[in-house]
Design goal:
The chain is of the alpha+beta class. It has two domains: about 1-40, no CATH class; about 50-105, 2,3-Dihydroxybiphenyl 1,2-Dioxygenase, domain 1 (Roll), CATH 3.10.180.10. It has two helices and seven strands, in the order H-E-E-E-E-H-E-E-E. The protein has helices spanning about 1-10, 60-70; strands at about 15, 25-30, 35-40, 55, 80, 85-90, 95-100. A four-stranded mixed sheet has the order 4-7-6-5. A three-stranded antiparallel sheet has the order 1-2-3, covered by helices on one side. A hairpin with an 8-residue loop joins strand 1 (about 15) and strand 2 (about 25-30). The longest helix is centred in the N-terminal third of the chain and has 11 residues, at about 1-10.
Length: about 110
């Protein structure tokens, strides 16, 4: 849980004390947006097997990917689709993550 909290803090601008309260670590977005609560998954759940993908809205996907790469987080190729860009990676637990400019397209 702490490794995952650190990952989102360092790579996506979330703030956290890292303290586990009621079995959760709370992450607050420094620039506004959705909060994340990290909860220990059941032992029966395979890590990375969830059928969801977290998507973060960014205005400039290429720039975000380049800054992330310099900090040690590798994304796949930047793709263009219907007037916006996106790129994919995974968190330390194998969950799929996307950064996308879809929200900001014309």
């Amino acid at each position: 849980m702490h490794r995952t909290a650190r990952f989102y803090s360092e790579n996506f601008g979330y703030e956290t004390s890292g303290e586990v309260r009621e079995g959760l670590i709370e992450l607050l977005p420094a620039a506004g947006g959705a909060e994340i609560l990290i909860h220990q998954a059941a032992k029966s759940l395979r890590l990375g097997s969830a059928a969801i993908k977290l998507s973060f809205a960014v205005t400039d996907v290429q720039q975000f990917v380049e800054v992330a790469k310099a900090a040690g987080l590798a994304f796949g190729a930047v793709h263009q689709a219907n007037g916006y860009a996106f790129a994919n990676t995974k968190d330390p637990d194998g969950n799929s993550i996307s950064v996308s400019s879809r929200k900001f397209r014309d």
